[in-house]
Specification:
- By secondary structure, the protein is mainly α.
- The protein contains 11 helices and no strands.
- The longest helix is centred in the C-terminal third of the chain and has 30 residues.
Amino acid sequence: MFPFIGEGIFTQDGSAWKHSRTLLRRPFFKTGYRDLKGFKEPTNNLLAVLRSSTGVIDLQPLFFQFTLATTTSLLFGQTVESSEGEDKDSFGRNFDHANWITTLRTRLTDFYWAYNPSHYRAACRSVQDFADGFVKRALSNSNKVSAGESDDRYAFIEELYAELKDTKLVRDQLISVLLAGRDTTACLLSWTFFLIVRHPSVLERLREDIQANVGGNTEITRDDIRKMGYLKCVLNE
């Protein structure tokens, strides 16, 4: 896993793992509860694709694109779609490829070193270069604080750097969180939609729960979501 995610929480154990867990919880708490504006653009893009589609729609690839956008928004301060000079499709392909080969290498256990193709190394470098670019932007943003030009887009990265004091370690933690946040959430959404369309009574009750708490509001807050008890039960199930 090291060629892909480096020295992140997934490649650590013992006290190092505990330290990373504690370290990552702090910026999540600070950035995760500000607002939901980071979800607006990815949600609108997803809905636009669904509205323009006809026939049977394979939701899982769309959910993977959606969670890639929301996770990069949280971690990097902007989505892949809004990143300048970055081919979002290329980044997604490289990320998926690096993740897939990493999984294959893990299955080889002690013989992981026997499978290290050049295209795997290139995909890992591409993902790391992408993350490195945002670390540099975050540090540049921090340097503007005294001039009153700083914003909170890069709060997650700035919080990590304040503790780690090493750009490579910050990058490795970012990629680890990106891997966890993207794949697990996309799979959760895929299974949820797969099941609720097969249980109409659950779908109807879920709609009623959301409508009762949101009503005609177009902007949903975290307080609204906390009140949706049935939604929480559905996702937990």
